[in-house]
Amino acid sequence: MQIQREVLTKIREKLKKHLLQDLNLSPLQTEELLTMYQEEEVEPYKFYDPNNGTLWILYSPKRSTIYSFLFENTQDMLNLLSDALDELILKESLIGVEILEEESHKIIDLLIRYGFRPFLRKRKNDLKFVRFELSTAIYFDRIKGKEIKPKGKYQKEKVVIKKLPSITYDQIKETLREIFILLGGIDKYVQKGMTVVLKPNVVADHGMRNGKYVGGVVTDKRILKALIELLLPLAKRIIVAEGSSINRKETFKLFELYNYFELVEIDPKKVSLCDLNTDDTEEIPVPYAKRLEARKVPKTLLEADVIINLPVMKTHFAAVVSLGVKNLQGCMPPLEKYMTHFFGLWQNLVNIHHLVKPKLTIVDALVAQEGFGPVYGEPKEMGLLIAGDNPVAVDAVCMRIMGLKPTDSPAVYLAYIQGIGPIEEENIEVVGNSIEEVRSPFLLPEINLSNGPHFKIFAEGACPGCKGYLHFVIHKLRRPDPKNPERQLIERPFDPEVNVFIGPYENGKISKKKKNIFIGLCQSHNASKGELVMGCPPHAEAIMNAVFKLFPDVPRPTYADESEEAKLEGMLKEILQKFQLT
Length: 582
Prior knowledge:
Elements: E1 2-5, H1 12-22, H2 27-39, E2 43-49, E3 53-60, E4 65-72, H3 77-92, E5 96-100, H4 105-114, E6 116-124, E7 127-134, H5 136-143, E8 157-163, H6 169-183, E9 195-200, E10 208-209, E11 212-213, H7 221-231, E12 237-242, H8 251-257, H9 261-264, E13 271-275, E14 281-285, E15 294-298, H10 299-302, E16 306-310, E17 312-316, E18 320-322, H11 324-327, H12 334-343, H13 345-355, E19 360-370, E20 378-388, H14 391-401, H15 410-417, E21 428-432, H16 435-438, E22 455-458, H17 464-474, E23 480-481, E24 484-488, E25 498-502, E26 515-519, E27 531-533, H18 540-548, H19 562-579
Parallel strand pairs: 4-5, 8-21, 9-12, 9-16, 12-13, 16-19, 17-19, 22-25, 25-26, 26-27
Antiparallel strand pairs: 1-2, 2-3, 3-4, 5-7, 6-7, 8-20, 10-11, 14-15, 17-18, 19-20, 23-24
Helix pairs in contact: 1-2, 3-4, 6-7, 12-13, 12-19, 13-15, 17-18
């Protein structure tokens, strides 16, 4: 297939004819739309197949969005469209399609057959648009086995692995000093008078068991203390900043639980704690506008001279791992955190890295976490600190230590494809200990999506996100049914039978005679046939709401305390109303 990039003026008349004659737009609407295309910096891409005609795709790299399709002399529209879109997503990664409602149903059908899914409806003046998105599950399936050319050119990144002879405070501090030397010195990162933000992972209270700190859940306070002492001679201010994701309003309670207030006592005039969930924010445009055009970013992060990312090495039931890329989710205020589930969690983790750019990532692998992480897993003593300038390179090294491939994590793989950092071994220089010296395969979360007699789950092709969040909810049905304690809730008889669909494929198993629940963006095209839980992947709360409607006599499990539950309900409604999710 021949691909040619043109300028909009070259096909202006073709496009005008299409809008006026094929879509019956008025001359005024047509001019309005052409002006919009110019403002969005739309570029026509010409895809020519000598055996199957020509397809013009009007695409805006600025918005990562296709606005129109023009076919010429095409015999097999689906084949030509599929070939063209395959080429475009290899070049541009995740993209959206935003077309006029007047576009023929044939185009919409072709998009759905390719893998795009209806997402939301928009109105601009008197023009109505339908937006389609490509789920990450479908995207990864479409690019499988193809040569990936990441956006931009990577330089070789250095990642330090240090095995500590003992996990004592003095040894932690000395090891951090050695890491800085290997990476080029402390003054490479912090100069005199700078404001430094340390972003730990303080996700929940599960790091304390029977009154004792067990490690592997939150960033070890000793690492923060050692860093503060090393940086204080240069830094004007050091702010330990986090926005807890599970205990959303209790970040400071978690700081207290893990004795983080002791960090302030090192130098109360220069060291402070910050709850990013309540910090003032500023809305910042997202480069390439993938999934979301802008994000609200806490001002503490925007005003910092240096951000140091301090994740914990752990598995994650939905993201596969929680490391450097995932840890920045805690930077976002609460509503932003939940919006990312609706608009695409993995893509929006990448988006954060365009806006919040840590200069250094240091992974706490003193005690890691395996199994059903990021909070319910088991501690795994590793005795390691892993560090580097690039979070993707650091994550790639960590995943290899954990016995995983960097491509196993949707967020890490997408960040690599979109130019945040390298994952190839030849593009990462490992210093200190080698990966082979410290490799120790981690137990992964056990995901159980087995059926009940009248409660069936169809999950072909689903990504780890939807599988993980659905498991999180379904696990709560694997307990005695109060109506009959000899069976589990999932074994309760239903008439009609309940069918739950996740992932892009259903293979003709949908029946209108059943109670159908469609979970995730992959299934949004089936919304008229049952109940849709939107998201990519949907938040556990949204799935919980849909599933527990089936059990009105059973108290719905809570994710946090009751006041936070009510607050989250309001957030979810706000998202739905604001964006008119289909």
